[in-house]
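Dear all,

This email documents one entry for the complex benchmark we are building for the journal club exercise. For each entry we list the sequence lines for every component of the assembly. Then comes the predicted three-dimensional structure of the complex as a C-alpha cell string, followed by one or two observations. Please use this as the template for your own entries, and keep the labels exactly as they appear.
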Amino acid sequence: MTYVISETLSEYDTPICDTLAETVKKSLRTSDTIGIDRCLQCGACTSSCPAARFTDYNPRTIVKRVMENDISVIEDESIWNCFYCYTCHLRCPRNNSPTQIVQVLKQMAINKGIGLNKLEVLFGYGDAFSEFGVSKIPDLYVGQMEDDLGIRWREFKNNLDSVRSELGLGAVAVKDSGRGEIRAILAGIGFFDRQDLLKHMAKSKSNTVDEKGEIIK
Amino acid sequence: MLIGQYYIPNTSKYEDMNHSKDHVGVFICHCGGNISDIIDIRSVKQEIRSDNISTFDCEYLCSNVGQDLIKTSIYKHSLDKVIIGACTPAKHEKLFKKCVEDAQLNASMLEIANLREQCSWVHPNNLATTNKAISLLNGKIKRIQTALPLIPIQIPINPNAMVIGGGIAGINSALNLANNGIHTYLIEKEVTIGGNSAKIGKMFSPEKLAEECSMCSLSPLMNEVGSHPNITLITCSEVENVNGSAGDFRVTIRKKPRYVKDNCMACGRCSKVCPTYVENDYNCGVKDKKAISMRFAQSVPQIYSIDPDHCIELTGGECGKCRDICKVNAIDFEQKDEMIELDVGAIVVATGFDEYDASRKPQYGYGLFENVVTQMELARILGVNGPTLGKFARPSDNSMPHNIVMIQCVGSRDESKSGNKYCSRYCCMAALKHASLIVKKYPDANVIICYIDIRAFGLYENYYRAVQDMGVSFVRGRPAEVVQKANHNLVVKIEDTLTQELKEIPADMVVLSSAMEASAGTKQVANILNITLSEDGFIKEKHSKLKPVDTSRDGIFVCGTAQSPKDVTDTIAQSGLAAARTSAFISDKVIRLDPQIAQIERSLCNNCDECIKCPFEAISKDKLGNVDINPLVCNGCGYCTKLCSKDAISIAGYKEEQIMAEIDGVIEKGDVLAFLSREIPYATADNIGNSVAEYPANIKIVQVPTTTIITKAMIEHALIRGSQAVLMVEEPTDNPVGSFIYPLALKNFEQLKGELGKKGARLHFKKAYIPHYRGLAETFISLAQMEDIE
C-alpha cells in the first residue's frame, strides 16, 4: 500500500511533522494545551473508558505508541472503537486527551485509505446533516440500540416531540430555511466534496489517494 | 545627626575644604603578574604622579603585606584619599574599605579602578592597555576629588521575635529561638497549639521500621512552649496588621474570646454539664464534643473554651450551667475581642497546610459515600484518642473493614483545574504508614494501594520495602472512579497499567491520599505581611537552594508546610533553620545599610510628589508632609533622581558631578563609554575577563547604580570629550532590581535618544546576563569597530 497523505486535506487536521506527537499537537482537532508530552501512563483514561471495558481498545497504550512515534498505530483497528464520550479528556490529570488524539489518528488512517469500512456506517450522519440539518443515529445502529436499551428506547424515540414539548422544548427538526443555511455552510467548507470523495474511496477498489486527494486508479 | 530613627551622615565640616589640595595615594597591584605582565606599571606611576598624588605598587595588595602598605602609607604620607588599581571591586572592595577605615579614613575616601577584569585580562595583546589603565586611574582620581564622606546607616533591631502558627513547625521554631535566649511571641489562631501534627496518631520511623506515638513526641514540646520563660504564647489570635520593616516590625493581633478565663483548672466539670453537642473539627467533624470543651486532652494551654456559635447562652438562650458548676468562676460570657500590639525584630511564618478538599474529584465519591475517607480522617479513626477510640471501624456501620483500597495523588500531580500540579510529598509515606498500622493490628485485612509512582526517597525506601514484605498490595494506576454498591460497599475501577488489566476492586473502605495545599491562613498572612507566594499558593522562598527559609521581605522567614508540601521530618529540619536564621538576624543588634542609597536635600524639594512613584515603594510622605526615604527599602537604583525636576534627590556616591568627573578622567578621543548597572551588567563585564575573552581597549566602563540615573548632560559630556558612542547596559528583567527597573531604563534610554536629536544615533542600550558574557563582548567589539569605520 502506498502511503500518500493528501496535503489539501491534511494541512490543518493532519499536518506533516517530524513526529506523530508533533502532528497531534499541531492538528486543529486537538486543544492547544494538550498535555501529550506530560502523560505519565497512569491509566486514568483506560480505566474510565467505556470502549476499553468492552473491546481491546486501550487509550493509554494508544497515547504511549504515539509518544513512541509508532506510525503503525493508525492501522490498529481498535482506534475505531473510541466514540468520543470525552471521559478520558475530563479525567486526565495532565490535560492530555486520548479522544482528541484518536481523532487525528483516524483522519491519518483515512488519508491512507485505512478503515474506510469502519467509516462507511457513519456516512449516514453526514447524509442526515445535509438533508435535515441535524445528525441522526445511523440505521445500522438502531437495532443495536434497541437490543442494548430495550423497547423503552424505541418508545422514547417515537414520542420524542411530545416529550420535548412537555419539557417546554421545541421540535428537534430544523426548519426548512435553517436547513438551507446549514447546507450552504457545509457546501462552503467543502463538506460535500470531502464526503463524496470518501464515499467514492470506500466503494472504489483502490484504497489510495494522491497528493491532491484524487483517487489513484 | 539623628533624624527620626535613622543616622544621616554629617557632611558639613567637609564642605569648605578644597578637595583638589587633598593628598591622594594611588596603590597599584601587580596581582602576581596578572596585571603587571600586561600593564607597564612604572610608566603608569610616572604618568599619574604629581605634587599631591603619591603612587605605590605591590606584588599582592590583598596580602597582609599589601594591606599593611596601604595602612602605613596613609599615616606616613598623611593621605586623605586612596585609589586602588587592582582586580574588580566585587572581589576585595570590602577588604580595602576595612583597610582605610582601620587607618581612620572614611570608607568613601576609597575608589577602586578595575585594572584586571576590565583591563589587563581583556586586552592582553594590546599596546593601548597601559594607556587605558592610566585613564581608568585618572577617572577615579577625578571622581574622588568630589567625594564626600558617607556614614553607614545603622538601625537598631528589636530583640524580640514572633512566630506565626503553632503547629509542629512553629513550636520547633519558637523553642529554638527561646533556647537561644530570644524572647518569642507564638501566635496561634486555634484554642491550642499542636496544629495538624496533633491529629496524626502515629509517625513512622524509617530506621526502626516501626510506628511511634506522635503525641508522645509532640506533647512534651507543647508543654515546654507553655512553660518556657522566653515564650509568650498567644492563642485564639490572628495577625491583623503589620507595619514597619526588618528589625522593627509592629504587629497588631486580634485575640478572640474563649469565654473562659486563664484561671481555668481544666477539671472538666463544665463540659460534663454542657447540654450541647457540636461537630468536632479535631475528629474530622464527628459530633462528639460539647460546646464547652478542650480540643484534646494534651492541649496547651490547659484552658477550656466555648464555641460561641453553638453555646445556648452565647446564642441568646438561657443556660449558664457551666458558669454555675465552675468552682473557680472561670466562665466569662462577657469577654470581647481584644487588640494587642507587639514590637518585634523578625517574624517566622509557620502557618501550615490545609488538606485538599477531595470532593473536588467527584468521581471518587468523597462526601457522597460514607466509607470514602481521607488519609487524615483515617489517621483520626486509627488514633486511640479518635472518634472510635482506636477501634478500626468504617463510618457507615461502625464495622471493621477488611478490604481497604487507598488512592494516591488525589489532587496532586494533577494539572486540571481541580488539582495541584505538584507532588504533595507526604502521602506515599502516610499511605504506607497507615497500611502498615492496619496490617500489623489486623493481619486479615487486605490493603491495596493504587499508585502512579511510590516516592519513598532516601532512607524511606527501607520502610517501603518493609511494608511490601507485610503483604500490602500495590496496583499501578490512577483509578477512574469509585462506585457504591449495596450496604455502602464500594468498588474501585482501575487499569493495572503494568498488566494492562482492567480491574474492579471491591472495597469496604476507600482512603484518598488528599493533597497538601497552602492553608487559607498562609495566604491571609502572606497578604498581610506583603510577602510573595509561589504560583502554587505557598510562600515563596528567596532562593530554593541557598536561601530556603528567607522570604521576599528581609526579616521575615518561613518554614514548614507554609513554604511547600513536606512531612514532619523535613518540617522539623526547616523550622530549626528558620529559627537559626532569625536568631542570627536578631543577634546582629543593628542593621548596617549600604549608604549608597537615595538622599534628599529638603531645601530644594518643592513637594511635587513625583519621587513617590518609586517602583520599590521606598519613598513616602511623613506626617509633616515631607518626602521620606526608607533606607531599609531603598536599593539605590536611582530612578527617583530622574523623576525629580529640582535635583533634590541624588544617590550617595553617585552624584551627577561624581560621574561627570569620572567621565572627564576616563574618556579620550575615539573611546566608547559603557555605563554598566552595578549588579548583573558589571559582573558580566568582569566575566568576560574571567573567561579569557577580549575586546578593544577603547571601551571604557563606568559603573552606575542603574542606567536610570544617566542624564543628557552626562552623555553630551562624554561626546564632547571625544567619545564615539555611548552604551547603556541594564539589569535583566529576572533580577529583583531589573524586574522593576528594566522597563523604566528602556524608557529613559528612548527619551534620551530623542532629546539628543541627531547625536542620539550614537546612544545604544542593552541588557546583560552573566553567563552570556560573549554577547556583551560582541557588542563591545561591534561598537568599537563600527565607530572605527566612521
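Observations: Confidence is low (pLDDT under 50) at residues 1-17 of chain B. The first helix of chain B runs from residue 41 to 48.
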